[in-house]
Amino acid sequence: MNINSLSMSKIVNISIFLMFVLLALSLHSLAAHIEDQLQNPTPTQASQQNEDKNIVTEKDLGWKSTINHRENGKEDNSSKEESIISNPLTDASEKQIKEKLSSNKEKIDIGEKYLGNQKQNIDKERSEINKQLDDLDKKSNEISAYQDNQKKDSEQEIIRLAHIYEQMPPRDAAAVFNVLDIRVLVPVAQHMNPRKISAVIGGMLPDRANILTQYLIGARKLHSDIH
User: Which residue in 226, 145, 144, 141 sits closest to 188, CA to CA?
Assistant: First the structure.
């Protein structure tokens, strides 16, 4: 049973192989025949091929003439476009642009002139301000010098008064100190000899003596503009 089935399988395989071989031979023979006809055509086939070539040639010529015509048209159009591009501005537009540029230049010149005048005015005002500041500094220095002189004169006057009250009897000086302005009394007492001023304070009214003592020991202060 196995032997028969094996024999049948072999037979089938051999048959299939033979069929493939015959098919390959047939295809090879057909290809050789077609190649022989192409290399050695019959008179009828040769005339048909010539006609086909003529038709193709006429068509090719037609396409070539059309292409040449179109290329010539494109060259004409490109030359026209080049002529248009080479002169994009008309005389009127050029004139308008020149006028606009000239107008802008005039405006710029006017603006520069205005700025120049403004700069001159600013420099002039700055110079005047600097001059005024210099004058103020000068006047301030003069006032300071005058105040210093006044202070020196005031101190000299206080020293002179202190010397006068030192020469007076303590009782008489105390009577004057009871009514003397405190702004004059304090500086005068500060410039008097301690022994002399103590005798004067002893003869003053208690309230006035108390106030003067507070100023002398620094418990009270006169204003800076009172000397």
Answer: 226
- Distance (Å, rounded) from C-alpha 48 to C-alpha 68? 30
Contacts of 196 (CB under 8 A, 6+ apart): 165, 166, 170
Scanning the structure block, which residue is given the tokens 């020991």? 217
Cα 185 to Cα 182: distance, rounded to the nearest angstrom: 5
Paired tokens of 49: 């091929």
DSSP string covering 79-119:
HHHHHHHHS-S-HHHHHHHHHHHHHHHHHHHHHHHHHHHHH
pLDDT > 70 in the chain, percent: 70
> Model-level pTM greater than 0.70?
no
DSSP SS3 for 204: coil
In three-state secondary structure terms, 192 is coil
The whole-angstrom separation of Cα 13 and Cα 159 is 156
CA distance 178 to 181: 9
Q: What is the pLDDT of residues 16-74, one digit of tens each?
A: 878 777 787 777 777 777 776 666 655 555 555 555 544 444 444 444 444 454 555 55
Helices and strands (H, E) in the chain, number of each type:
7, 0
Could you tell me the end-to-end alpha-carbon distance of the chain, in angstroms, rounded to an integer?
156
CA distances from 130 to 122, 127, 142, 164, 210 (A): 12, 5, 18, 51, 54
